[in-house]
Prior knowledge:
The protein is α+β, with helices and mostly antiparallel strands. Helices cover 33% and strands 27% of the residues. It has 13 helices and 17 strands. It starts with a strand and ends with a strand.
Amino acid sequence: xxxxESTTAPxxxxxxxxxxxxxxxxxxxxHVVRLRYAMRExxxxxxxxxxxxxxxxxxxxxGVCRVRLGKYYYTVTPERTDAKTAMIALDxxxxxxxxxxxxxxxxxxxxxxxxxxxxxxxxxxYASGEQDSRLSYDKWIxxxxxxxxxVSGAFDSAAEEYDFTISNNYINSWIRKASIAEIVMRSRxxxxxxxxxxxxxxxxxxxxxxxxxxxxxxxxxxxxxLLELKLRAKRLGSKVVPVLLRASDVGMMxxxxxxxxxxIVYSLNGALNCEPAIGRFVxxxxxxxxxxxxxxxxxRNTLCASEFVTHLAAMQLRKTSPRKHQPQMVSVGxxxxxxYYYPPSIFEHFFEGRxxxxxxxxxxxxxxxxxxxxxYLGLGRLRAVLERLEAMVAHxxxxxxxxxxxxxxxxxx
Length: 413
């Protein structure tokens, strides 16, 4: 929930990094960029090498945009500045950031925008990573009465920056690519697919190129609104169909294919970790998945070997087993919500007698979880070695039981 801050704006550094959110001039989708800034008279000054950048054109066209700085949001008015102000900002950049990088990227005559706040900022719950939640489960229980309302609200809050967050995280992008590959290799052009927890629909859109249709469901209205904007911009018509639905209500989709069922049902990146009524989901899945069809899903694991090793190497002993207690509090869109992580054997047991396990894959096994992506990128050339090792062991016992996520491929036989 966004909370009005007092009339006194927080004091920020004179230079630093901010997140600018504009809307696409044609698509109306959020366009998110990270920019260096310099403060002058309570106004953010940002630079670009040319005025052709999308974020500049979006901002000036709309006449209003948003700035996020840590846990604060500002509504700002963008204006093109004169050359003198641009030089003041450039001089501040040269003093605060790596001089060679600034000179190379911005040149000698950069374009400068001033982003003037229209009023005091809005305080938004903010955590720097999934594992950085500040609310305990006991306190969350005292403050919340409806679990799914909290989950949908958290993902509504995350929707605007969701695509930017995923695409700018190396490990998240790697997981997305690997997950899509598992689905595509089992798909046929005539297949109808059902996605549980589609988010903004990036997976559904990519997979739709290989199949007849994807019905994409989610609990977040804001996520689905962004998916609808993407579908309109890409002119995908009925190739992807957005539906507001929680996972445990999947049985309601039984009539969507005229009673024939879906060829593949899939759920990626831990969407099912946010569905406490997993038993009801299993029964509903049985109604919508056709005989011989696949159910492919990835859920968060209770034990992650690479997480343990990474924190151990950094001498962060208290963080080596953060998933010991369930449910796990995670931060989504600046809000803390409980998520239910599963040991692979327990999760497989839910489907016993209904589906046959075909494949189990750690996502990832050797690489660390996505919230440690920055540490991983710092390994340099060692990354190539680890990713070759990843391909060799991620599907093998016991490593396929020890990933951040476990991807399961079940078949209804």
